[in-house]
Known about the structure:
Blueprint: H1 2-18, E1 21-22, H2 24-34, H3 36-55, E2 62-67, E3 74-83, H4 88-154, H5 160-192, E4 204-205, H6 225-246, E5 252-261, E6 266-273, H7 283-348, H8 354-389
Parallel strand pairs: 1-4
Antiparallel strand pairs: 2-3, 3-5, 5-6
Amino acid sequence: MITLYRCIICIIFTTLAFCQTLDINTLEKLVIEQNPQLLVSAKQIQVQEGSLAQSRKLPNPVLEMESGSGADPETSGMISQTILLGGKRKHKIRLSELDLLKAHLEYEKLKQEKLTVAFQSFTNILHLQEVKSIQTDKISVAEVLLKSVSKKVEAGKLSPAEKSRAKIQHFQEQMKLREIDKSLEIAWISISSLWGDGKPRFNLAVGHFLNTPTMSSSNSLDKSPAIQLAELSVVIRRINIKSEKAEVMPDLDLDAGIKRSDIPGNTYQIGFSLPIPIFNRNQGKIKSAGFELERAELKLKATKTELTSLVKNIQTELALLYSETETLKDEIIPEAQTAYTIISDGYLNGRFTYLDVVDAQKMWFQSREQYMNALKDYHANLFELDRITGNSNHTNFKEKN
Length: 401
């Protein structure tokens, strides 16, 4: 008995040592901190921060020195400063601020997209684990059925062909289990690439897959990253028009200097230069900026229309899937299990045929698999809805919803 306990403890510790579990919170942290595309997008924020700091700098003054030689040498020095007029500097700073905000929104949008892909991949793994569990049950049931058929064949109550059919079914179920294991292996490789791992470090996903968090009755698009980016694009185009119009006003160059020669006394010089906007008044860029604003407004309208329609479609799909999961869970699966129990017990007593048992078994397991498929689609659609609406408060796979 002591030896048996030691073996059990050894098995438990070995399982814990080699079983690395992944939950949805850990997954979210890994993707945010290590996804290569997100790291690139975060660098773009730093780039825009540098551009904003530079936009606030004033133009440098220019110092000019001249020195002559000969009978009447002269030495002069001149310093000049450009004065930006028409609000150019203000608009430039504002555009840089908006570009920084755009970089932040693009990062958030990309983060939502990457997390949605990660969560849907995680959903697929949880689904495959549940399917594997069902397949294991199918193999166990097939083994029990094979033993029952073998006894009947040995007793001369069934043809040996029935035993061959039971064996084939058992082998086929084992082959399906190996296919599921292969699909799980591929799924782990795929999800690991989202945080830059070439080789999966996890081999077990943990989460309450059977939970179905209720869908929010109102899914506003106010926090949608795509809508926010489209709205920001309109604001940027409007400021850009003001900036292009400000370019019509020429910049003023102020000059001040001193000239010194062999003649006693210094000569002081002041001056200015101001381009006259006669031929070029930036008409082309102003017109182009107006068209860019119109395009941004049309894109915003199209984005709102597209996402509103998409949200309604997903809500309809979620409602149907929720109804399907509840019906399967509360009605179809229990009835199918009851039918299989009655028919399998009756088969042992000669009241049903082998085909009756196989059909009942098939109906029971198909309803369970259908339930798992509906749950998978439900979670995947819910994550997609969260991505579109900008919802980061995910309740999927949590213990309580």
